[in-house]
Amino acid sequence: MKLYAQMGHGDGEKTASGLAEGLIDGVILSPRDWRPDGIGDRIGELTAAKADADILLDPQFYATFAASSEAARTGKLPEWPYFSAVRKSDLELSAEVDRVLRDAMEHVVGLPVTGVIAPNIYVSRSFDSREAVIAKNFVRNARGVYAGIGDGRPLYATIAICREALMEKAEFQEFLNDITMLPEPPDGFYLLVGSRGTDAPSDIFHADVIARWMLLNYSLKINGFQVLNGYSDVLAPFLGAAGGDAGAAGWYSNLRVFSLDRFQPPPSGGRRPIKRYLSTRLLNRVTFTEREALSDIVPSVSNGLPHDTDYNPEPDTTQEILQSWEALGDLAQRLALDDVDAGLTACGTAVTRAEAAYSEIAEAGVNLDRKSSDDHLEPLREGVQAFKEMAGLA
Amino acid sequence: MQSKPDMADVAAAVPGVTFLDEIGEGGFKVTYRADVNGSIEAAKLARIPVDVNDPDVEKTNRRRLQRELDLLAGCQTPYLVKLGNFAAYDCEIAGYQYVCYSEELVEGGCLRARIQAGHQPDQNELATLGVCLLAAIEELAGKDAIHRDIKPDNVMATQDAGRPFVLLDLGVAFIVGGTNLTMDTQAIPGTRWYIAPEMLELGFRQSLDYRADLYTIGLTMYEYASGVNPFADPGDPPLTTMFRIRHQNPPPLRTLRADLDTGLCALVDQLIKKIPALRPANLPQLIKRMEGYR
User: Fold this and answer.
1) How many CA atoms lie within 13 A of A6 on its CB side?
2) Potential cystine with B93: which of A167, A257, B5, B221 (Cβ 3.0-4.6 Å)?
């Protein structure tokens, strides 16, 4: 499984370092955070760091409905010529969908990217909604419009959906049945599952959401598609076990969990994020100080990987994300196996080992921060089991 | 078939065909070995359901039958039975409306007979069966058609290397009778064991596609390989069978045929997944994969 940097504000040397060290295989660029006239140079810097890096650009058209608000935090997105605020009613016309697809893809093919991600809107409610109909039209029409542009690079259709949509079983299965029988299919899909917020522990950690995101990966892979999971972070290796080809994570919490909150005005204030360490054993991040406290009591919390040394003393933001990518890559190697049954067994083992480590921590009397707790483990265990049952693998 | 006509009455009602003997019977159809202008063919006598209160029922069913015969006439694949020399002929026997037509008589034995005789195909034969059936539905899918009645009884194994397996009965029974024929499972013993899970959902016609045929191909391969239909138990009431079809996962084929390639077993298992989206639907890729196991 490949691991990508989910890029955002404040990149600095993070992605270039991650690529140069081989911790990540590619990047997903964010137009919200880069001006169109500077993106070419930035891509050049990234490919200088790793010549065979996968370079993709998420057109972020799903922010279109939010963009009509003056308070919207669309950053540099409006500077991109294909982006504008459109109304849902306009997109009910297939011709308008085609126009949006063409405008975005014509712009993206002019960049030195290795594949083209087609735009789409965000399905904020249910697969049985007007938004879902529009979104399916974006998926259906993408190949035809792309063929007209005449570019040979792989085409990825975006599916950006709220977590609630995944929780409606019948509608979800119907959607799945539809997109796996497209007359003109793309080469792959770029999947985004939206949370109601980006604070950890994320509400993405819900058994049904995890199970169906895994099922989406499994189904698309069986049907011959490449599957890229944006903003998937710790879930990426689990999605890889179900067949996903790539996962992505960035350095801030809003680059690890997808949410349209990123494009909305912030609630108030904000503070510098606490430095955290991603423990492959815990399948979660703990704070810098928690890791220090645990290092002697429960040494298995440390990964024993090269970037562990960056945590003595406290790492900077670049070191922190490099450590995260290193840990995610290690997890992906162990969980995202070619054999789905073996991968799922490895996922189960990983959760069991995490539970044991958390028990050790509890027995040692160490109180963890809420975000560092084991709240994610039950949904993970139940999610993997529910996926196995739905996929007929139990 | 209830109130099946006597063969002598059939012969009297259908000129130009010499009916030799009966070779098969379904819920709404009888098949005879017959001489058609010196050629030995399979003459089919299909009853047309009518409704005395609604003349449109008969018209609709006749149109559906003709549409299916036209479809069969347009198919080129050697793995589908071909139409014979006797074109559709309307007749009435003992007050029932029928259409008689002929298909080629495919020499060989059906898979059901082989299963009952305890035959176990080797890997090459099983994969060849898969390739033939997939190629047949690929052609049908290209014409927006679904067979909907693939089962061991409807697949003939021949001695012809150019067409080792031939798929019979192009869904005519289903089309002629529409919903009632297919869902009236007590009237068609056996067929209920070969219904794709999605066809048990309300309103399934809205979204039915050729993946229902992938399911029945997988199930036919599974049964041919193992001798077992995992959902079938003649003693069960239909609802129990339907529950199994919708909810029960069969044992992996590998557990019943450890001598077969793991990948081939896994592929057969994948074809009988409950959710259509979990069956690999890219037919050219699927046929290529299946060919790899020959």
Assistant:
1) 25
2) B5
Domains of chain A: 2-263 (3.20.20.70), 276-390 (no CATH)
Tell the CATH topology of B7-104: Phosphorylase Kinase; domain 1 (3.30.200)
CB atoms within 10 A of CB A270: 7
b/e code B222-236 from CB counts within 10 Å (16+ = b): bbbbbeebbbbeeee
Is A344 at the interface with chain B, CB within 8 A?
Answer: no
**Helix (H) and strand (E) counts for chain A?**
13, 11
Half-sphere exposure at residue A383, Cβ-oriented, CA atoms within 13 angstroms: 27
Q: Does A385 touch chain B (CB under 8 A)?
A: no
Asked if A234 contacts A283 with a C-beta cutoff of 8 angstroms, the reply is: yes
Note whether A219 contacts B281, CB cutoff 8 Å.
no
Tokens of A16: 């270039």
Nearest CB neighbour to A223, from listed B198, B249, B281: B281
The residues pairing with A5 across neighbouring beta strands, listed in sequence order, are A27, A249
| ipTM metric | 0.90
Q: What is the pLDDT of residues B63-101, one digit of tens each?
A: 888 888 888 899 999 999 999 999 999 999 999 999 999
CATH 3.30.200.20 positions along chain B are 7-104
Instruction: Report the topology of domain B109-291.
Output: Transferase(Phosphotransferase); domain 1 (1.10.510)
Residue B220: CB atoms within 10 Å: 29
